[in-house]
Amino acid sequence: MRSNIISTVVFMCLLHNSILSQENSTRIKCLDEFTKTTSGTAYWKYKGIPYAISEDLLCLKSNHQILMRVCDTNNGQWIPDLIECKIKINKNLHCPDDLFEIRDVGDVPICLKISNEPQEFNEQFCYGSNIIIPMDLTNLEISAISQFLLKKNICEYWLPIRRKNELFPYEVRLPGKSWRKEINKSLKHLKNNPNEHCLKHIINNQTATDFKNQIVAVDCHAFLNAVCIFKSERLISNAGCPSGFGALVYHPAVCYGIDWNNFTYEHVDLREYLKKRNWLRRILAKYVPKKNQHEFFKIDFLSHHLRKKYIIIMSIYENFKIVRKGYKSIPTLSKKIAKSSSAVKMVLEIDNSSKGLRLVIYNRKYLWANNNSYVGVKCFAFLEYGTLKKARLDLVWENQEQSYSIFNVNLVSLYRTEYRCEGHSIFEFQLISTRLFVDFNRNTVPGFVIRWNVSCMNTNFAHHLCDEVTVKNLRKLSESIYGNRNLGHIFIHDVRIMNMEWIKNKYVVFWIHITAALKVTAENYVKELAFGHNVPEIPKKSFAFIHIKIVLNNFFFNFIKNSTFLIRSTDYCFSERSFSNNEMQNQWTTTRIGEIATTKKLCIQKNGMPYTRLCLGDFVHGAYWKALTQPVKCESPKYNTKVLHDLQKSKMFKSSPEKVLLNVKDLIANNKNNIVPADIFFISKIIQSVLNTHSSNLSLRQTSEGSTKWKNAISDIFDIYNILLGIDPNVIKMSAELNATNKLLRSFERSVDTLSTNLTFTQIDNGEELLVSELQSETIDYDDIGVSVYISKFFLYFSINPSIANVSGIALFANNKKINTHTKLKGAFKNEHYRFLQVNHDINDVVDEPDLELGVYLPIDLIGTLKALTKEINDVIVVIKVYSNDKLFQQSARSLISISRIVSISLPGYSSNLPVPVPLIFRKSKNKEVNTSGSCQYWNYNSWIDGKSMLSHFENKKGKALCFLRRLAPTGYFLKKNNSIENHLKINETSLNANIIYIILLTCCLLTYIGFLFYKEETTLSIYDLSRSEFINFHIISPRTEHHIWSRWNNEYMNKIQVRTT
Description:
- The protein has 1062 residues and is α+β, with helices and mostly antiparallel strands.
- Among the domains are: 100-234, Mannose-Binding Protein A, Chain A (Roll), CATH 3.10.100; 236-295 and 327-337, no CATH class; 345-438, Immunoglobulin-like, CATH 2.60.40; 447-570; 637-690 and 697-730, no CATH class; 731-760 and 776-976, Chondroitinase Ac, Chain A, domain 3 (Sandwich).
- It is 26% helix and 29% strand.
- The protein contains 22 helices and 58 strands.
- Helix 8 runs parallel beside helix 11 (677-696), helix 10 runs parallel beside helix 13 and helix 11 packs parallel to helix 15 (740-758).
């Protein structure tokens, strides 16, 4: 008896013997047949192979199995003879089967995601949805959805909307274009209680077709069904997927598409395709290029008794064929789980060219987006308590891979405001956000923070501020302060309530921001911008500032009687007095938030550390002093400390900053063994003050005399740095507790950048010959190639203008006795020499050299991109600083060991976040026996971090590492601290020093005997070396092929080694 439905596998097993025998016998071709169904006609055609799939119409055998017939060429009969052709298998026609589908509601079907049972509010449940009831639906659609839900006994359900508290607006909590969109209050039909921070939708049907929809506030811990709405036309997205692939918007990291290039993606078989057929067809129709829409791709394969293999292929129109394997290279229906090679990261920063705010996004392609008009990010300004304002984004530049994107953020307030940008990645909708960033480029009229405590014990005084706190009442409060006549001689620019706190139902604490100026001087305030450090400057008109504070103090004292208050600055801690144990009065100097202050009169502890006090705070709550935890007892300071303290407080900075630095240099050079941590602290503040003087004094920048002074000052800063590196390491370590080393490093980096942009650095008189000899410093200018070099004992500096001779980097090499070099270095670099790197030749030529210690250059496409981004007409200046060690880079927790030089690259006037990576090559260690793998790390002025979105690195077996930097900061190669490694390094260093002594003695003896024989030849060779070109050719690395180029370099490098060995 013939069966209507028999498994294809069974036929293959029953007929394999007869089919195998056909190879040596006459084949009888099966005649073409057709099967009529209600959906059309399916044709069965024999095409020279034993298996056949219906054409024109796909016949299915079961839900996830295609119907296949076998041609028995012994008798020319199809098996099975009688068939039943099933057509429809999926629950839904347009929506995925895990959703519910509503059709006949217009041109676009609606898909519903419904929770299995009532639950508390779960924000993530509807992530990926793009519709909110009732705002985004027509009356017809609302009616259809309501009827459908009522049939499932769901008459109320969660909306994807929530608020922070009763004073904040209700916000949409769906990633995408509607993220944090404020909900119109008129949509709520019932008054909400203070603890009801979520919204639900209630369906009330008045008639069979008329539904009354109510949106009501509810406690977020209530139990309701969750209902999410999707329109089928927006079910598919390709954010983060390979080209030609797409994914469901609520599973955005699982991408499907056709692999035309035979990559190693996961194969999607026929069973999975049939299961997900309704929406996979939508992906294929949307993302398969037009030129490929009639091509076939592999969907599955068949094996016949291990003798022959066949492939099932199909087109996007579901035309199926079976062909022999190996017929030709065939594309494959594939699945790829999207993964990012580096993290998705966003950075808000000041744009140095436009003086505005800009957003840098790394790997934007992995940010979730449900339509092409949405960039994946929304930026907000926090104007006041409970009020967000969207800030528009304008795309400035983006590379093809979307690994680096720059947007301008349009500012929305005239006064300082906190900004934040938010988006969601495609990886489980992880929230990606910037830190809160205060736009300090706004008006610098003095800003105050009032912490105002209003008692709620007697509501006769403050009923509207305790029991009926509403946005309307808060605005009335702001207006009553803004327009009050009792403010006397001050002019109020702005009043904002930034935060509120309830304390045990007894007090309401208001945090109020007031921007004010004296009326007589209000017109004199201008917008002073502080771009260099992104921090406000301490007001120069202290009298006006203090007077405003007094007026505000008197005003709030009388404003509401049953209240207390305190007044803070938004930016810095006010000067404050305290008394020591010996009843000595100490005054803490005015200090910015985050900075460490000292007393006005010098006060030193027994260990040589100054008494300090940290200024704490943030933008919303203002600045305040950290509480003193120990009694202050001042000891007599050392002579050095006293002099440095007095210099730091002197008025010489304005007239003669170079004299101040010269005094500092002479003092510490002659007293290196007596330096204490307090000295480094005061030195760092002196250098910082000198730089501030330079930036605010036009005569120092624009006159010949001022330029000479500044050159001398910069030279002294370099010398001070070299002197400090020679002092006791324990002193440096203790000074790090005062943040002195970080201040010194920041100031040093700033001074170098200033030198590179404002001055032509030439040899400068360093003072006494003895000091010059000790510091071992000199400068060399290569005017013909646009390079200036400063050489010293512990530090190298290169200022390069690539537009002159295409030089954009440097390389350091260990000296080789076989090759004489004329670029003699000094101090810690005495066994090395440098060469310049151009931009137009191969990187392998440099890396292959066995004596390479480090190399760094700027690719020409980076330079071109930077100029295009900023529309700068001035040349890009490349500044490269090489530190001999990490002595001043004091880690908060020393968990890493440096085994390389520290290299710092900067581009004065440009962002430190780069659109194209900079390659940096390190030899990991001079000790060849230590081959432990480490990592490239950059300095964030607190610790060394790997910052995987900012840099990546590769290594080879010859002790060299290649770092790709996307952020310009001091960078080195580090190992994790390990006692065995650390001891190994020390032991080998001791052994090396001992061996050097024997080598030197032996060399001296040999040179004494044969030296005179080669005197003439050596002299001639040295002259030849001095006259030959210094250029080493270098090649541009595209950021798209970082890994490819490194792999190629490594393979070529190893091949060369094998050839040489052979």
